[in-house]
Amino acid sequence: MDVSLVSFIIVLLIFVFVFESVRRGILETKYSILWFNTCFALAVLIMFEGLINKIADVMNVYYAPSLLFLFGLLFALILIFDATRRISKLHRQLDTLTQEYSLLQLKIEQQKKQGRANE
Questions:
Q1: Smallest Cα–Cα separation from 26: which of 36, 15, 18, 34?
Q2: Is 34 helix (H, G, I), strand (E, B) or coil?
Q3: CB under 8 Å, gap of 24 or more: what pairs does 62-65 form?
Q4: The model's pTM
């Protein structure tokens, strides 16, 4: 079996998996855009074999399909970096919310103590 065909099937399966995840509400649409773009770019590189061969010639790569896997790896790294960036942002927001909650809880307890002292 040709490696290009196997690559195309894998990209197609990933596309269907992402689409189904969005449809079921597991993955939000805004996060799926990067996945769809990645699938589209990989599919274009797979379908137009001449394009990948020209890029391989420019980059002096002997076996052109291996360049396809290199691009796939680079896209995967971009996706991982994007996920890490989003997790970091959520972690900062969680820290802020926790601190605000603690301050509000402390303020409520102080008001209760003042109310008891005034009685």
A1: 18
A2: helix
A3: 65/3, 65/4, 65/7
A4: 0.61
Residue 116: band (very low, low, confident or very high) from pLDDT cuts 50, 70, 90: confident
Q: Nearest Cα to 7, choosing from 50, 71, 102?
A: 71
> Cβ contacts of residue 65 below 8 Å, gap of 6+?
3, 4, 7, 52
Single-letter code of the amino acid located at 106: L
> Which ranges constitute the DSSP H helices of the chain?
3-24, 29-47, 49-58, 64-118
Residue owning tokens 């079921």: 24
Residue 19: both structure tokens together: 């689409």
